[in-house]
Amino acid sequence: MHVRQHPKILIISFSPIYRDARVLREISALAELGDVTSVGYGPAPPHVADHLQVPDGAKSLPQTPAGVLNLGLRRLRASELAAPAAREATRLVDGREFDVVVANDARAIPTAFAVAHGAPVWADMHEWAPEERTHVMSWRLLVAPLMDHICREYLDRCAAVTTVAASIADLYRERYGVAPRLVRNAAPYADLEPCALRGDGVIRLVHSGGAVAGRNIETMIDAVKAAAPHLTLDLYLVPGNDGGRYLRTLRHRARGCSRIAFRKPVAPAELPHTLNEYDVGIFWIPPFNTNARLTLPNKIFDFIQARLAVAAGPTIEMARIINRFGIGVVTEDFKLDSITAALNALTPQDVSSYKSCSIKAARELSFEHEADTIREIFNELAPR
Fold it and tell me: Are 204 and 280 contacting, i.e. CB atoms less than 8 angstroms apart?
């Protein structure tokens, strides 16, 4: 039997979808299988048949006085749909019917069930929801119980659950009794060759992503400032939700070092070709919470598709890939001295070897493999 023509798919994500790389890839795969309607912040992303835009000012958590009171009193069921974004999304979708509803992250799951009207709900968990921001006290005290409640109440009712890394899938299995399938944050395959190293011995380092406090970018800057003069660092940073305050502190920190440059960020689809001009992608994020300890972010796959070597800290999932494919170095810890020493130890010969190994890694760690899982799940859920 075949899935009927043009099933209707609703994708809910309380993020600016047009620049959310994971959701964009999800849409691109599902748009080949049906008509996709997206609900989220910002303008319409590519490949959708329709987009329902949630106002930027509508928060995705119940951050109203009444909402905060309910969270404080542990009125968790009353808080499920209390966020302004959830209410607006429910209003926008009202009266429409869909064959499959995809909820991106825990905060979107109650909304998905509210509008599904019996259609299967697929939860795509971008991280370990109960500890998303537990390094922030207000989040830990007020929001973490809500995330745990949503996971306990809804995950086993979902027709499918996916997540980003095997270690995080294990956590969902152990605490909530569900068995998420793995859809990693892999970038689409880019048909590239490693860029040759410069003949003058300069090794070009690069980092791309959000300028978000906690990602340890200041330590990367300090390490390059302290490192040997043949090492340069270019940063492609998107300002965070702090009005660009953290990015400004980074610029100030790098001031006076001619080997560090801030470049204009590029769209996800352009990243591999832009990054291909460099030699080593770098990322050190200390394990300040469970998600940081287990993270397997977009940027690692971007580095691989760009055919770069990778230098990173001993983060479990990243280290596993770096060591398995022989594409770079993993430091012993996240301290400045260790990072600086690892960078200084890089030789052009080592970097060239790592970059060559990235060719094999790029084929296996591409979105095309992850898209197969997305198609399998959709074909299990869609009406026939």
Answer: yes
Amino acid identity, position 251: R
Only one residue has tokens 């198609």, namely: 375
For 282-337, the pLDDT digits (tens) are 999 999 899 999 999 999 999 999 999 999 999 999 999 999 999 999 999 999 99
Best CATH choice for the domain 8-186+367-381 from the list 3.40.50.2000, 3.40.50.720, 3.30.750.24, 3.40.50.2300: 3.40.50.2000
Smallest CA-to-CA distance from 290 within 268, 316, 313, 266 is with 316
Rounded to whole angstroms, how far apart are CA atoms 125 and 147?
A: 12
The pTM (predicted TM-score) of the whole model is: 0.89
Nearest to 171 by CA among 349, 316, 59: 316
Structure confidence at residue 241 (pLDDT): 80
Helix (H) or strand (E) segment spanning residue 21: helix 21-30
Nearest in space to 147 (alpha carbons), one of 174, 173, 128, 175 = 128
Is the domain covering 203-364 a CATH 2.30.110.10 domain?
A: no
